[in-house]
Every structure is written in structure tokens, then in C-alpha cells.
Amino acid sequence: MSSLSRELVFLILQFLEEEKFKESVHRLEKESGFFFNTKYFDEKVLAGEWDEVEKYLSGFTKVDDNRYSMKIFFEIRKQKYLEALDRQDKAKAVEILVQDLRVFSTFNEDLYKEITQLLTLQNFRENDQLSKYGDTKTARTVMLSEVKKLIEANPLFRDKLTFPALRSSRLRTLINQSLNWQHQLCKNPRPNPDIKTLFTDHTCAVPNGPLAPSSVNQPVTTLTKPAAFPPLGAHGPFPPGGAVAAANAGALASWMAAASGASAVQAAVVTPAPMPLPMNQVAILKRPRTPPATPSIVDYQNPDHELMKRLRPAPSVEEVTYPAPRQQALWSPEDLPLKVALALHQGSTVTSMEFHPMQNTLLLVGSATGEITLWELAVREKLVTRPFKVWDMTNCTNQFQALIAKETPISVTRVAWSPDGNFIGVAYSKHLVHLYAFSGPNDLRQHAEIDAHMGAVNDLAFAIQQTVWDLQGRKHFTFEGHETPVYSICPHHKENIQFIFSTAIDGKIKAWLYDNMGSRVDYDAPGKWCTTMLYSADGSRLFSCGTSKDGDFFLFDTSKNHFLAVGEDGQIKFWDMDNINVLTSTDAEGGLPEGNLLAVSTAENGFKILANTAGFRSLRAMEASAFETMRNPVDSSLTKAVPGASVSCKIERGSPVRPSPMLNGVDPSKPRIIDDSTDKPRPWQLAEIMDPAQCRKATLPDTAGSSTKVVRLLYTNSGAGIVALGLNGIQRLWKWVRSEQNPSGKATTAVVPQQWQPNSGLLMANDVSGVNLEESNPCIALSKNDSYVMSAAGGKVSLFNMMTFKVMTTFMQPPPASTFLAFHPQDNNIIAIGMEDSTIHIYNVRVDEVKSKLKGHQKRITGLAFSTALNILVSSGADAQICFWSIDTWEKRKSVAIQMPAGKAANGDTRVQFHVDQIRILAVHETQLAIFDASKMECIRQWIPQDSLSAPISSAVYACNSQLIYTTFRDGNIGVFDADTLRLRCRISPSAYLPQGNQGLSPLVVAAHPQEPNQFAVGLNDGSVKVIEPTEAEGKWGMVPPSEAIKTSPSTTNNQTQEQLQR
After folding, report:
1. Tell me, what DSSP letter sits at residue 878?
2. Is the dihedral of CA 13, 18, 23, 24 positive or negative?
3. 647 or 912: which carries more pLDDT confidence?
4. What are the helix and strand counts (H, E) for the chain?
5. What pTM was estimated for this model as a whole?
6. Over pLDDT 90: what percentage of the chain?
7. Which regions are annotated as WD repeats (predicted)?
């Protein structure tokens, strides 16, 4: 339904309300689904009219629409069920249970069983969770409050809870204006016409006798609510012809939008554009369906019309007509970015890149794993990384939720900066677009998540003024017309006209105005295949670069309105815009350049930065100050002065070129004599945290005063809790709650969490009867939804309910004892269980059956990790071996021994964890950290304890973004390593987080927060748990040393042994 039709419904609702047609009002609200009347809903709920409550809700949502809707209906039906029980009407309660509540058993069978058990109680208040249930009136009020919160959070009710702000009797006013208009069109208007019907258009009857003098009337601009339609003769004279049409185009079009012969002006006014259109644009935007009747109405479909001349791109290179030669400065080879300045490792295949439009050393990178990374090229460091994650699953379509449930891989297809550099857009290979707000290198915040398309989002771009999706995720326009998937888009504006080019994989190119009225230009691209379109930075030229079915081309952005670059078969070719002959080319294995710096993706999961002479100067100048400026949010006034000459990526577009800035008082675009003293970067130093004031920390409270050492530690997947498993087999749970001090409800050092304990007083205690605890190997695993935790401590494996701490089931009675647990990533009913006898059992919980038994290790299993990308299970054992198993057949593919330092025996616990790319593996042994490439099943990097970190390693884990590795040592030290290079970024001394005078106190295990890459927790040998974060001023744990420092610094962590291994 069009926006005007929707607004008409609101006008009718207002009219019905004013006329006291109460039942009709609410029926139209429900049937249209446009406005949810909370006042009416409240009345029906508090009156207990449950059938009417559900009937009214059904106009806006169904039970299975999303999680919020399901909870709304559940709360209402539960209340109805409890009221029946309270009345001791068991028959009605059973009827509600069977007919209304059974639908929820599919989603939570345990809850349904618990509700059913209430029938057996004399008073359901005997149930702990219902002990505070009061009288019916109070219970309804409490339930209504909860339901209204769910309604407000439900995306299906978005924009439906507030009635538009309308003047009273708006429909009457519009009809009155229409009658005025009809009267003005009369050939013989009478002074005081008697209008008796709205069913036909008004005309004044021709008077008898001589013609009466023409008394024309001034149109009404403001009307108060009339008791009846006022006589039209009360209005004064009004001007003739064209002035009338111009003055009242809006009102006329509003009521004639559906007419078959709409004029150009009408069609333009009906356009639901968020901004008013100037009259000179109105004439351009129309699509007339009748021949022009006046000289002022021009047919835009005429190929000679000026708009078509403006929008029509050249169909091929041969047909391009260049303007008269412009005065161009002579160029030299130094202007082209041909030399490699940097080579950086992303860790996964780079799919899209783009430089910040104002800060030319900030590069945004998207990868095939779905993660985005912000690089500061001046210091060769990843500032921020965000792995792919659905922010709010309830706002997503059922189709997308089904894809996620199947663990469908999702990659980044396009990253883009907004023209002002304040927002980042990320398009994904399935459905979603993410918008991040960017206010500084350390401040990248989630802004909006849009389930934009069915299937892949192939491209995105920020437009100026007009929007298809606004920054709050609201859709304003839908452009339909392509018959095959859209390949790329190119928004632009010219002479105050906003438009969009789009290309599809069938080679069709279309141009659209922001009006939902179809494409204005349709033609075939050269080669009739995938094409990308791009305007030069000054907007004077439009380029089209496409592929044929036999080859790939990538379109590059332009530099200084002078050069054009295209990637083809690993070559970057440069053209002068005023000459069709190739200037030069360079080999960078594909990529797209612009400005002084050029980012080029490589085949080794990384990218290279190419630079011209000015680019090298810019990098050196920025490098000198980057260590300080990176730590602080970007000042807006400074941002406006930072360069915008660099934009790049695979099939990328850039922002208009801005004036070249002054870097450290020097214009980098001009040659200068380089002073080594000013360009030399400051010496890099290892960050060492020695004092408690240098970091933030929180000790988790323990009401029981446990002193049993913590041997396993996990964050909940939501990031709002921590689970610790002690050597005695008892698990403790801490939860953070939402508050003014902690609005996110996530784990933080700023607020002390609560130790969770159910009313029953139960402990999550494993069966340890007959177990020698000192020789046991406790293990733990958490379900994806945080509902269940599975653990063992030398005895049977127990499955606990995280809310009630009840044991749901037990299995795998020893011997042999279970030593490691891992849920299958695609099926929570399948568990891989490492055993003390060196075997691995693939166990199906639902049927209580071991499906496969894997043999390949010589000693007990100490680590398990699944990779859905490679379809393998990786295991590690106390024999210092790593085995790779096929998930499909459960056959062993390969076994690799960890390379032990000289004089060390090949034994001891070894843990494994996959990088977020699901390809690299972190292997942790007391003697080393090692990175393996699981696709090649070989070690690629290794670090051995040395210097200030020479004690044996007790535990290590990837940060949530896999950019850091947190490592604990038995002497109490903690090391923070760069995950790609295994170079030490930061050392945290025991004196910074442990109380003074506690000799022998050390961390045994470390866990990383699932969403905050700079937060981790450690479990100590005295039973305590501490959460640690960097100070707010720092925001992160140290920095990666620049390449010059890496070559000379004694703190480098790539030791000689591993350098030989890599060679």
C-alpha cells in the first residue's frame, strides 16, 4: 500500500474516532495493522477479555512471527491459565493448557511440562517462581507491564504505537479544499453555491438570462473544524489558470493520484520524497502518461531531453565524446602508486577495502569470514576488529534465522565509509547490512542492523541528502525492475537532481530517481554482463567497467580527477583520463588504487599498500605522530583537516577529492627535502603493566568462600556471565544485570556481578564419588543459548539447567573418565567427548548412543575444536600430538607432533582453539604457543617462553576477534600477544592484579569475553576469579611494534627457532 493510502487510513481513523464509531475504529486499526491502540489494549487486558485481546493482537502479529511475539502470547495465555487455576476451574485450565499453551511446547518442552505440573498443586503459589503471585487485578497489571515492554521492543510494532500528529478534522478540511477547487473550476461560478453531495464533482448550473459576472474565489489556506461545509462564496477572489495549478498542486495531486491521466506536476507531488522538490526539478522528475498539454510540461522520455543527456553514459569506449581539452598539470611516474610500501596479513581472504575519506592512513577491510577490521597503516596495526555477529535475531526474517541455524558461512561483500567518515556500512553475503558509528579509532559502535534483501547484498553506497535506507534502518524506497540479481549501485547528484545507477548480472543498466516510479533509463552494458559504474571524483565523467563472461575486471577509483586504474589478471593498469592509451601498469595480484596510497588484495589472505612519492612522505609523516593520536578519539575539528586523497578496494568507489592538507606543517603533495630527524618515528616500547592503577580489574564475589582452585573458566555466550569449574567438581555462576552503571548488562569491571543461586539452594555439583580429585581432569562445555552447561570431574558427565541448577541427565559412566567436551557446532545433540584412555567418543545425547569412537592418540585427550569451514574436528592430547578428523566420515586425515624445545619431553596437556577464520588453530602447551594452518595441517608460527616471560604457560586463549592471544604463566605474569605474529604487545605483572604478600598465587586458566576483545578473566589457584580490562584512557593492551622496531627490538617474540622453522 502506498504511503498516501496509508495516510488516508489514518485520516479515516481520526474521523471515526471524532464521530464516536468506537467499534469501527478498533476494527480498522486491527484490519489495517497501521496503528496499535495501547489504550484500548490496556482496557481489554485489565478487564480480562482474553479473546478480544488475542483477536486485536492478531491484526499485528502471530505467535510464531518472532521471539517477542511468542513471549507476548505466552504471557497472555499463561495469565489466563493461572486465573483458571486460581478459580479452581481445573477443566478450563486443562482446556487452555491443551488448546492455547501446547504450541509453546515445541520451543520449550521443559517449560510446558513445568506448567502442566501446576495442575497437581492445590495452590500454584506453592511453586517457587509463582510464590509472589498476588490477586488477579495485581497480576494482570504486572503482566500488562511486561507485555507492553515486549510490544515496544517488537520490530513488528515499530512506528505503529504512535498516532500521527494531525490537526483536528483533517479529513473534513481536505474535502473542503477539494470542494473549493471544484468550484474554482466551474465555468460560471456562483457566489454561494449549495453543495449537497460528495458523490459527484461539484459544478454550478448555468444561470438563466444574461451571464452573471465571474466571481472567482481565493483558495482556503487554513480551516477550522466546521459544523457543516461552509458556503464557498465566503472566499475572496483568486488568480486565474497557471497560478492556481502551481499554488494547489499538492492538494490536487493528493486526491487525484489514482487518476488515469495524471499530469507531470501531479506525478511529481505524489512522490513520497522526504524533501520538498523545487519547481524546476518537478518538471524533470515526471513520467507523464498523457501527451503534454502546455509548453511547460516536457516529455522526459524524449531522447533529446536535457535530463537524458545528463544521465546517458557512453555505451562503449569508442562512443565516448570528451569535452574540450582541459588544462592539466604535467604528470610524472612519481604521481602513480607503483611501489609497495607495506605488506600486511589480514588472516583471511580480503573481499573489500576502503580508505577513510578524510584520514588517509585509516583503511577499512572486509573479509570472507564476515569480520571487518580497521587498520592504521602508519603503525601497521589493527585498531578494531568486529567479527560477524547478528545483533538482534528477533528483528531478522524467518528465512535468515533458518540460514543462521544451519551455520551458513557469511562473508563481507562490501565495506563503505559515509562521505563524512562518521559511519561505516557493511554488506554481507546473506541478507544483512550493518551500520557502525565511528567517532575515533577506538570507538566503533553498533548503530543499525538491516535485514535488507533476500539473499546476498552485493553492494552498498552512501548517498547525499536522499536515502533509500536511513541511518536508523528505515526503508524509504524500493526500486524494482531488474530481472536478475543487482551487481552494483552508483548514487550521484547533479544540478540538485539525486539519482542512482544500478547494474545487474545480465548486463542491464538502469537509472532511478527517488520516487518509487520505476527506472528512468534502461540500456545494455558493453558485453552484456556484470558492470560497475563510477563517477570521477569531480563528478564530470562517468566510467563503466565490466566483465565479459570470459574474464574479470575491477573498476578503480580516480586520483585527483586525472588518473583511472583498472585491475585485470593480477595487473593494475593506469590511464590518463584524457587519453585512451594505457600509461603504465604494475603487478600487485589484483587490487584497486586511488590517490597517494593504493590498497591491493593479495592471494595470501592479506593486502599490499602501494604508494607514490607523496604517499611515502604521508606515511612517514603520519607514522611519527600516530602513536599518540591513535589513543584518543578523533577531534572533529582535526578530522576536517586530515587528508582524503586515499580510497581503495575491490570494486570500490570513493568520495570527492578534498584539498590536500598540511601534515605536520608540510604539504605532502609538494616535493620537499626530507629531514630524517622529523620523519623518524619514536622508538617503540613494550607496554608493561606493573601497577594496579594501570589496568581495571574486578574480583568476583564468592558467598561460599570457596578455596578450591579454578581449573576451567568460561564466559557465557551472551557476555553477561562467567562460569567457573573448581577442582572439586562444583561450578559457580556469576551474572551481570542491567543497571544505570551498566546499561548493557554485559560483563564489566565497573560493576561487581551477582553470584547466581536458585531459590532451591542447589549447587551445580558433579558426581565425584570415588574420584581422586588431584588426578582428575575436569571438563566443561556450554550450549549456544546459555541454557545448559555440561561438565564432568572424573565421574559421569552431567547436564545442568543453568537457571535451576538441576541435573537434567547424566551419561558416560567411567571408566574411562571424560577429559574434554565439545558441542558439535551444527547440532547440540552431538557431543565430542575426549576420554582418559586416549579415545574420542562422538555421542548423541538424544538417543543416548556413541555413534563413533575415534582412535589416534597415545595419551588422554586434552583438547577438541570443530571447524565448519573445513568440516573437520581437531583434537590434542597429553602426548603432544594434534590430530585432524573428517566430520563426515570421522576418519583421521593426519597427525602432527608439536615441535618441542630441545631437552623437553613430548608430553603434557595441549589445548587447541580455532581462530575466527576457522582455518588457523592456536595450540597451547606449557612450553610454547603455536599457530597451525588446518587447511595444510602444518605449523606456521611458534613462540617459546623467554626473557621476562620464561615461566611455563598455564593457559592461553584467543580474544573474541582473534587479534590477540591472552596467555597466563605459572609465575603470575600475563602476556598479551598479537595473534598474527605472536609478538608480545603487553606484559601484565602479578603486582598489577594480585594482592600483595600472596606468594604462590597464580592464574591457572584464562577466558576471553565473547564480544569485548580487550576484556578477559583469569581463574586462580586459590579459587578466586578476576576480570581484567585496560584503562579507559588506553582502551587496549599495547600496540604492535612498527616493522623497524620489530627488526631491532629485543622484545620481539618470533624466536630464532621458529624463524628457522618458517624457512
Report:
1. T
2. negative
3. 912
4. 21, 52
5. 0.49
6. 32
7. 854-895
